Amino acid sequence: MNTLKNLQLLIEKGVNDLKFPLQPAELYEPITYILALGGKRLRPALLLMACDMFGGDTTSAVPPALAIEVFHNFTLVHDDIMDNAPLRRGRATVHEKWNTNVGILSGDVMLVEAYKLIMQVENSILRDVLDIFNTTAVGVCEGQQFDMNFERQTDVQIDAYLNMIRLKTAVLLGGALKIGALIGGAAAQDAELLYTFGEQLGIAFQLQDDILDVYGDPDKFGKQVGGDIISNKKTYLLIKAIELAQGQQALELLMWLNNDNCDNLKKITAVTNIYNQLQVRQYAEQAMHEFINKAFEALHKIKLPFEQKQQLHDFAEGLMMREN
């Protein structure tokens, strides 16, 4: 079986080999630009890994894997516009480097290009693969809308939040794995179990991200710790704290959430202290472990020898062992 690193290199080569027209430059240059910003290429690599796990030809799975990567980057271009984000992976976002209209239109073309790539799968499974891809794409958009809705809502519940991250983050992992499994010749039941594995793993990963944003080491986590607190982002920890806080704790938390002119460091310290008092980190970690256990349960049920599932098992363990 191919190693994850080899599969990532295969995707990287595929991305570099993608060719787009030269004109109009404002339409196509942003696509090349965003794809060249890199990233770990984990989603398309997982598609290849799933295909390989069932004994399929990973070479034939490269175009649909690239479709996943192009689609993912399309969502980033449009998300950055909605978030008015100036940077993506340390470089100017597409709408900052060009303009918003260019970002919207280039993103639209990226979605079409993703479909052109996904259409290169074998005709015998094309309808099933398109159905997975369409369902996944709609789910990601629904998740983004729910996330934006949460910015205006004060009564977000844990179940609603978990559903949002399932849609926005986890279904793309599940969809990539399921498509790879079908290309590799997996039975429908095994492909569905692999989808469940990816979906549950994706939810666990996002919960871990919520935890590390507050409690992580910034040098190891790779971004500013406390950013979610500064922006009042509705994460598992904040939603749980609002649910549990009473009396003076609730008033203090509300004060920090409504104070737009406070010192960021003081806010991070104060809100983290409330989190510690309410033990919301422990609640989040418990939920995270529940989802990772569900992921491993689904992987265990797949009718393959464990050695063929070992790489995915190890990948999941490695993903959930980011240092804090």
Explained architecture:
The model has no long low-confidence stretch (mean pLDDT 95). The protein has helices at 4-17, 25-36, 42-53, 62-83, 94-97, 100-118, 123-152, 158-183, 188-215, 218-221, 227-230, 236-244, 247-258, 264-278, 280-301, 306-319; strands spanning 87-88, 91-92. β1 (87-88) and β2 (91-92) form a beta hairpin. A two-stranded antiparallel sheet has the order 1-2. It is 76% helix and 1% strand. It has two domains: 1-186, Farnesyl Diphosphate Synthase (Orthogonal Bundle), CATH 1.10.600; 187-324, Farnesyl Diphosphate Synthase (Orthogonal Bundle). The protein is mainly α.
List keywords for this structure.
324 residues, mainly alpha, Farnesyl Diphosphate Synthase, 2 domains, two-stranded antiparallel sheet, 16 helices, 2 strands, 76% helix
CATH homologous superfamily identity of the largest domain: Farnesyl Diphosphate Synthase
Please give the largest β-sheet: 2 strands, antiparallel
Radius of gyration over alpha carbons? 21 Å
User: What is the overall shape?
Assistant: globular
N- to C-terminal separation? 31 Å
Strand order of the largest sheet: 1-2
Structural class: mainly alpha
Q: Work out the strand percent.
A: under 5%
CATH structural class of the largest domain: Mainly Alpha
Mean pLDDT level: 95
Quaternary organisation of the protein chains: single chain
Q: How many DSSP E strands?
A: 2
Q: In which range does the helix fraction lie?
A: over 70%
| Overall tally of structural domains | 2
The CATH architecture of the largest domain can be given as Orthogonal Bundle
The CATH topology of the largest domain corresponds to: Farnesyl Diphosphate Synthase
- The number of distinct helices, counting runs of at least 4 residues, comes to 16
The unreliable regions are none
